[in-house]
Amino acid sequence: MKPVFKSVIDxxxxxxxxxxxxxxxxxxxxxxxxxxxxxxLDTQALRNARACRRLGxxxxxxxxxxxxxxxxxxxxxxxxYTRSEKANLVPMLDVEAHDDQKPITIINKxxxxxxxxxxxxxxxxxxxxGYPFWSTHVKSxxxxxxxxWIAKYPVSTLAGYKVYPLPVDPAKWGEWALGLNKNPSVxxxxxxxxxxxxxxxxxxxxxxxxxxxxxxxxxIVREGQFSRFIL
Length: 231
Hints:
Elements: E1 5-11, H1 20-26, E2 30-37, E3 40-41, H2 45-55, E4 59-64, H3 71-84, E5 92-94, H4 103-121, E6 126-129, H5 131-137, E7 148-151, H6 158-163, H7 173-180, E8 195-199, E9 217-222
Helix pairs in contact: 3-4
């Protein structure tokens, strides 16, 4: 039996004023909305969240997380807005900035941020990262209780997408991604990925799914793991 996946997009102010009805009509299952970069609120975060809630699109917030003195404030922002905007998916910590901090500092601050979110919702946040970044700047296996959202692009150029055209139907994203790349490597501590951002750069799928931007981050979530994301 072929694996089954949920289709998910992640968006920020760089997608412009999104046509969320188009997103819903496309068959995309859920969305993650950038809440903040550090402690700076994304200009489209609340508009996007309220449109998803109005249309019944499952959504969660993510933070482009920085391991600086305000790391805990970022986690608390995720808790605050997840509650106030009635998001129905667990928050995501986007861990791809090291800010010249040593791994032990990143680990300690990330552990505290994860704890704040877990204590608030009874479920840990998902952690988004890439294998090279995590293996170089974090080097820890202590976060395996968090769902792993891995970034790895089997195709990342416009020429590549012309050779391997990405299917329009979100239900076929998983088959396409696995057909080009059996499985992305997972960092220390995890045995499998729960979600995979398999496409981002040069896919030219933005306008098709209601964005102003040409490109759009596309993701799949293992259906057997999707319950871990639901609040």
